[in-house]
Description:
- The protein is mainly alpha-helical.
- The chain has one domain (41-188).
- 55% of the residues lie in helices and 3% in strands.
- Strands 1-2 form a two-stranded antiparallel ribbon.
- Helix 3 crosses helix 5 (88-107), helix 4 crosses helix 5 and helix 5 (88-107) crosses helix 6 (111-130).
- The longest helix has 23 residues, at 43-65.
Amino acid sequence: MSTTTPNVTRPADTDDVVGRARSHLVEPGRSILQSVIATDDRLAPAIARLTLGLVILPHALQKVLGWFGGPGLSGAYTTFTTQLGIPGPLAFLAIVGELLGSVGLVLGVLTRASAAAIVAVMLGAIAIVHLPNGFFMNWSGHKAGEGFEYHLLAIALGVVCLLEGGGRASVDRALMRWRPANGGSVSPVLSQR
Length: 193
């Protein structure tokens, strides 16, 4: 028992000199995949994830499939490369990242990676297109283009997903229940965050 922390029952729970928890030294490490999918069953991260994914998905479908009056893949790629001056590989990466990121968020698959893709796309959209148009959206139609307020909201929801994971009703949460045991075989283990 630690002399500095009376509620601790095992000597490995704290550093006896300063009384700080040192569970990271005695608990087995997590794999990179386990760190990426780690989440709990809270509702708030799920709301952020679903909202961001469902708002971005139609924009991605415009660019990839031409749905909702969009240009389709070739039209979006041409616009990105010729009018916006984005190099071809980055244009393709932005279009695919927006699609895969939004689908990943809706399903809660690799939520942190999906959110990172959307945050990157939104930062790129602000820097390349929307920053010169100011903060506000073009509600009245009097400006040359749209501002970046919408993009900041998307970035904020993305950051919540990056920090908290997929939350309730996500594939990530379901995957956390099945992870390799010490012997390497897969066994059901209800994980804690």
